[in-house]
Structure formats: C-alpha cells, structure tokens
Amino acid sequence: MSQKVGKQSIAFENGVYIDAMASIVGKKEGNGPLGHEFDMIVEDPKFGEDNWDAAESKFQNETAKLVISKSGLAKESIRYIFAGDLLGQLIATTFGIAELGIPLFGLYGACSTMGESISLGAMTVAAGYADYVMALASSHFASAEKSFRFPLEYSNQRPYSATWTVTGCGSVIIGKDKGIAKIEGITTGKIVDYGIKDAMNMGACMAPAAADVIYNNLKDFHIEPDYYDKIITGDLGYVGQTILIDMLKERGIDISDRHYDCGIEIFDNDEQDTHSGGSGCGCSASVLCSYILKQLEKGYWKRILFVPTGALMSPISFNEGQSIPGIAHAVVLASE
C-alpha cells in the first residue's frame, strides 16, 4: 500500500516515533513564559566561547549530547543526524556536531529547518534505512543579527513588524520505539514568493507559505482543521499570524480557534519588548522539544500539526534587491 497521500503528503504506515527530546536556550528565552519547560538555560550569551558563532555551535553540541543521554542510547546507535542553522554554509552545525562523529545531512530551510529535519528523519526511519536518527536545529540572536540585518553595535531602531531571533537549540531522536509522540505523517511545503522585500517583516514573508502547506495538508488528508487540537506555526509572530488566518479564511478555512505560534508564545511581549515575537531555527525547535511535546506526552493534546516557517533569504540576495520567498513544512504529531 502506498504511503503517498494526495499531492505532497506522506502517511507513515509503520510506527515512527519521537523517542527523546532536549532543549537549551539563552537567558532572554529562559525569562519568558516557557522558561520552566526548557532543559537548560544559559546565562552567558557566548556560552563561554570567544564569539557568537562559536556559542551557537556549543548550543548544538550540548543539545545533541543531552538528547542522546536522555534517550538512553549509545551514540553509535544514531545512524544519521539531520541538522541546520541560519549561518552561511551551516557553520554552527559544522563546528557544533563534528566531534560526535555521526554521519550528517546538513539542511537549510531557514526557520523551517526543524520541520524539514524531522520530515527527512522520519522518512529515513520509516523506509528502514536507520533505526535511530537525530533531528536538530539552532539559532542565536547575535549571530543571526550580524548576518541578516545590522551589526549589534549599530543599535538601529527595530520596526514593530520585526521579530527577535531566539537563542536556542532543540533536538529529537526519531526511531520505531513507542515514545513521547508518534509522527503520523508529513506535508512537504513549496517555495511561495509574494514579492515581499522587507527583511524586517519575516512574518509577512513566511505566512503565504504556511497558508499553502496547511491548506494542502487538509486537502491531501481530506480533513478539517478540527482534526487537530492545535495548528502550530514556527515563528510568524503577531503580524504573520494575522496574515495567515486571513489568507486561510479566503480559502474557506478558519484556524483562529486553534492556531498557536511558537514565536508569539516564547516571549512575553509586554515585558520583553520583542515587537512581533520570536523567530529563528531555534524558536520552533526549542518550543517543540519542551512545551509542545510535553503536551502530547501528557495527553493534553491528542494530535497537532507542527508547521515551522522559513524565509529563504541571504545577505547577498537581499542586497541585490531580490524578494524574500517563504517555505513551511508540516509534521503531524500524535500522543501515544
């Protein structure tokens, strides 16, 4: 029986599960509403390293080692790592997990990377190419800001549409053992470009891609939004959330009563002044690997659609006047 469903989805016939999870975040994230959910809060933004990039690598290294320890598996049992970050040539990942000596698929899906890594990892396990794989993604406020916007020393004023890049990392172990949550299926997103060129409005850049993949997930599986307890986007923020809900309503779909955005929930906007909310690969990754999976593990939520969202830009494309396309990947997660 084919596991292919509809136009761009997969339903896993055999059980694929998230067996373990780990999350490490920075001080600002630890001071937010979800601070008590994370495994570790690092007070020093440089994590004892000489620079921001090395700090992000350490976030990856420590999170990867922590999730292996929590899984109870030997490192040698992990056949592949699917991981990525926001930096050029994935240098946070390269230097972060090199010492583990585990075969790596380096991924760049911008802030959608955790959805991409879980999707590919689940496909690999379901196909029998590995018993266990790791999926991981990270970001760091300082390393991302200097790469994509302005040097921190510039102290520019941020518009209200801007998001705050999360300093953090999340990781899961995927296998066939019943664990924290079951990965029931995936819907792979397409590149969607509405011609937006404002790098300070990531929510507007990514919302059309999120709307597209959510629409196609519902269409492929022949379901309504109430099939899910929550439909969870990665980091659209307040601006992107409004656009997403409006775009889906134009297609006759209303998710307003069950939408949750990791970028909105990770910070207290009244107290922490993050404007539109949080963003970055580490945003959805760290929230998934703490709060979200705990809700499934405890049975508070029975089934959710996890939809990390990404803006596919680089400093080169932005400086050359290119638009900022978006992409989003959807993962169906269920409690056991």
What can you tell me about this protein's structure?
- With 336 residues, the chain is α/β, with parallel strands linked by helices.
- The protein folds into two domains: 4-175, Peroxisomal Thiolase, Chain A, domain 1 (3-Layer(aba) Sandwich), CATH 3.40.47.40; 181-334, Peroxisomal Thiolase, Chain A, domain 1.
- Helix content is 35%, strand content 22%.
- The chain has eleven helices and 17 strands.
- It has helices at 27-30, 52-71, 91-97, 113-126, 141-148, 202-221, 237-250, 262-265, 269-272, 281-297, 315-319; strands at residues 4-5, 9-11, 17-26, 40-42, 80-84, 104-106, 133-139, 164-165, 168-175, 181-187, 230-233, 259-261, 278-279, 303-307, 309-311, 326-328, 330-334.
- The radius of gyration is 18 Å and the shape is globular.
- The model has no long low-confidence stretch (mean pLDDT 91).
| Number of beta strands | 17
CATH fold field value of the largest domain: Peroxisomal Thiolase, Chain A, domain 1
Supply the CATH class of the largest domain.
Answer: Alpha Beta
Give the overall average pLDDT.
91
The secondary structure category is: alpha/beta
**Rg of Cα set:** 18 Å
Helix content: 25-40%
What is the level-2 CATH architecture name of the largest domain? Answer: 3-Layer(aba) Sandwich
Compile the SSE list and pairings.
Elements: E1 4-5, E2 9-11, E3 17-26, H1 27-30, E4 40-42, H2 52-71, E5 80-84, H3 91-97, E6 104-106, H4 113-126, E7 133-139, H5 141-148, E8 164-165, E9 168-175, E10 181-187, H6 202-221, E11 230-233, H7 237-250, E12 259-261, H8 262-265, H9 269-272, E13 278-279, H10 281-297, E14 303-307, E15 309-311, H11 315-319, E16 326-328, E17 330-334
Helix pairs in contact: 2-3, 6-7
